[in-house]
Specification:
Helices cover 56% and strands 0% of the residues. It is an all-alpha fold and 253 residues long. It has 2 domains: 105 residues, no CATH class; 111 residues, no CATH class. The C terminus is likely disordered.
Length: 253
């Protein structure tokens, strides 16, 4: 909102714009995603009415049932982190669409049964090793050399140069969220393309990634592995990667 000289009364539209501006870009998309997943689950269990049409006690029960009973389409289990995200998304959804709803599902006082059961679920999952998020895998030095020398990353072509720059930023910069930037070839690349670019570069360069969790974050993991192999002091490595604790630096998140 542009600054004006002198006092003035902001319009409601200006205030709303400020409110929307503080919401991270991914938050509405994440809310919509979990709303769709929840509605599919409700349809599968024959809850043929909307969650927001129910009172507080029923909402607490059915959200608990959802968190304990939802599974991915591809079978298996959602990770504990995903289920926590689901709870946050459902809470936002209710605040957005249910008239007069001023509750936060994260409030343990207002929703004691939900939190007692959800906490037990998460602890049980951890104990049994269910829904564990697989750590991102890095690349070896030889694999990095192979990719850099591959024709797909030829800097003399526009697309090759883009891939080469992207790859080097992932490796050398150890960024946490490179996919949040804007990348262009002949036009702006879609978010989906950016999110899978590191993995697709590896596949295109014939790197064997079978059984490995390769993503854009693999560049960050690779840089940490290289720092360890080079004998770089932990405090120096942490300054490079931006980690705030030795434990997290060693795990390479």
């Amino acid at each position: 909102m542009a600054q004006l000289k002198g006092n003035y009364l902001p319009s409601l539209d200006q205030l709303m714009a400020l409110t929307k501006g503080r919401v991270p870009k991914n938050t509405p998309a994440n809310t919509e995603k979990w709303d769709k997943i929840m509605n599919q689950w409700r349809n599968d269990v024959h809850y043929n009415y909307s969650l927001e049409s129910q009172d507080k006690d029923i909402i607490e029960l059915e959200v608990t049932q959802f968190l304990c009973g939802v599974t991915p389409k591809r079978s298996g289990y959602y990770s504990r982190a995903s289920l926590k995200n689901a709870l946050s998304a459902i809470s936002r959804h209710l605040q957005n669409v249910k008239p007069g709803w001023r509750y936060n599902l994260h409030n343990k006082i207002d929703f004691p049964d939900l939190h007692a059961r959800f906490d037990s679920l998460l602890k049980d999952m951890k104990k049994k090793g269910i829904g564990e998020m697989k750590s991102t895998d890095g690349l070896s030095t030889d694999e990095i050399r192979s990719i850099i020398n591959y024709e797909a990353l030829n800097p003399n072509t526009p697309l090759g140069l883009l891939k080469r720059v992207f790859f080097w930023i992932c490796i050398l910069g150890a960024p946490r969220a490179i996919a949040q930037g804007k990348w262009y070839n002949d036009k702006q690349l879609a978010d989906r393309t950016i999110h899978s670019m590191f993995k697709n570069i590896c596949i295109e360069c014939e790197i064997d990634i079978k059984g490995r969790n390769i993503s854009n974050h693999s560049g960050r993991k690779t840089s940490i592995i290289e720092l360890f192999d080079l004998g770089v002091a932990e405090n120096t490595g942490m300054a490079i990667t931006g980690h705030c604790s030795f434990g997290k630096f060693q795990l390479g998140p």
